[in-house]
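Page 37, continued from 36.
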């Protein structure tokens, strides 16, 4: 069947197919979703290289409230990590043999570490801390 014939036989083409499929699913009884956990995030500059100008070791930022204070390169490196953590996940590795100590949901706290991709001697490593908010 040619594309135009297919589109002509459906109501509104692909949109009609998708709408019809959505209608079928909505007629079935759906179990309620569990409430999504809420989290607070803090970014701490854990390590800096000898040529770092943007940060001092120990600088802390609330995320996303203070994300504008974070370098775009570092922010971009963290975005995938934060997205996973935001939805309750954890990344599947530990930092064995490094100074980075991963915490996985100890008293509602999980941590990850990410390095800025700047190839110079800036050497910035950020610690992402996710804290579960009760309620």
């Amino acid at each position: 069947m040619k594309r135009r014939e297919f589109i002509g036989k459906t109501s509104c083409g692909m949109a009609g197919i998708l709408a019809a499929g959505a209608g079928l699913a909505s007629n079935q009884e759906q179990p309620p979703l569990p409430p999504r956990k809420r989290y607070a995030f803090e970014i701490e500059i854990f390590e800096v290289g000898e040529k770092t100008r943007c940060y001092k070791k120990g600088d802390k930022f609330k995320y996303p409230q203070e994300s504008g204070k974070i370098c775009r390169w570092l922010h971009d490196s963290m975005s995938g990590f934060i997205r996973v953590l935001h939805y309750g996940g954890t990344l599947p590795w530990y930092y064995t043999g490094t100074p980075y100590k991963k915490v996985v949901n100890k008293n509602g706290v999980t941590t990850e570490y990410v390095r800025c991709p700047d190839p110079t001697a800036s050497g910035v490593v950020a610690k992402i801390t996710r804290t579960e908010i009760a309620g």
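The beta strands are 38-47, 60-63, 109-115, 125-133. Flag for discussion at group meeting. The radius of gyration is 22 Å.
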